[in-house]
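Hey, can you fold this one?
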Amino acid sequence: AQLRPKVGSPLGGAMAEMEPVLQWPPEQLWGLVDAVLSLYTGSRADVAAVAAVRYAEAAVFDDPLVRVAGRRLLEAQFVALKGMFASAECRDVRVSVAQPLGGDGVGENVVSIDFTAFYRVSRFSSALTIPIRQTTHLQLAPNGLVEVHRDEWHNPMRHLSELPAPLRRAHGTWRRLFGVATSLLTIGAAALLERALAPALSVAIALDKRLTSLIGAELSGLHCLQSLLELRGAGGSCVEPSAFRDVTAVVIGTFDGDADGGVLPEVAAALLRGGAGAVHLVGASGAAVSAAAGSLRKLAAGPRGATRSVTPHVVDFGHEEEVTLWCWTIRQFLAGQGKSIDVLVLGSLGRLSENSAGDAEIALKSLLTGLQPTLASRARVVITATGSCQWLSAGKEEGTEAIDSRGGAEKNSSLREVQKGAAHEAFRVGLAARHGRDWMALPAGIDCVSCTPGACLSAWADLAACASGLPPVRAAVALVGLVPGSRWAASSVSRALSARSASTVLHLCSRATYVSPGAYYWGQHRALGAADAAAAAAGASLGHP
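Sure. Predicted structure:
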């Protein structure tokens, strides 16, 4: 277990190339890297948890603009970062170990993380994005805690350390003063904000609990409202056109327009445009899968001499034995070609039976278990979930069997169905969290995450679906349908939303994009919400052992 990543080895999420040196198991080293990167990409809760668990009490943070000493001031610097930018992501992550920081007495216990951080100014668009290429050097104490965190920016700011001695001393003094001032200002502002919001938040939580008790369902109005108004992740960046060159991809779900059926064909088409060598479409409806495969074969033809293929597969997800048999068949098929699965997308499996959600949960477990042996090194597994995964009152991911066993919401069967649907979607998030945690330590380094591709738009779509049975809503929809051009406008909006959701899935499938194993993404934003509490409880959000 005395392993370290080779110097400069790329990390898409889990470590693939290792060599003996460091006295840490790889999952612990990976836990450190993932935790530190979550300071940039995660929430305030992530920052507080990482600082408390990973940093020494007297830890020093140093970058071209500030220098602070003390864990509390260090934490405040990253909290301030959350206030300056709507969200952030990391790409092209590379790690090296035991590289001395020349000239200042730093020993061999240094982990260096080279990556590009993209800071988004707007929650609505990726156009306003500030990229910063940087190397983060972490000096570790013998107990594994970070003593020094130094950010080296690969831009003109890095040359400030090369100023003549008098100017360099003045710059150093200014960095210390500016660092302490901004940290104390952030701590004070955060305390005032929490004090101001505490009464309103207490009242909202009390009312939410009362509402949950009145309706007799484990649904939270507060969580539902939050999912409808959370705009982060709705806009995002697109992957490079050649990001999926020669990969083998498997896309599983519905292709008949139900659930995320409009997204999966877009995902498959984009994979082919990105150079995928083979795309396998897997669904329960033979007609829908064959139609989708037929429309994609024109893209598969590509340039002369290309050997790309689109293969449809029909599987009855309601029968566990058939799912297991299909997994064995695809393993044998790919092994005969000398290939492995590089990208696996698990969308909605559709309505399987009267116990639809329960059957789907069994099928999901069987698919992940059966396909894991044929997943390639550094494969990406993306499990989609709708916005209703945020709606459970306790942020649980126990699945529909536990909901059925407890009963509840007997007075309103519609609410019971909504509750079961939300429980199933949260189950998908928790399933990704557990597999992300278990797979990150494998030599193959498989990355498994979950996401709501449409972000808040998905939550609005779920709310509309829940309300569609109400007579006033049906009447309003019928009235709008009489307006000339309304159907064309609705179809255009639906296609645009499907394209945006597909872009999010592809973004997470790309190896150039850093993902945290087991994490949940609200659009392209790493989230720590009600549903992600399951991932946090499983120990996957921060990745520490």
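Residues 165-215 form the longest helix (51 residues). Let me know if you want another pass with a different chain boundary.
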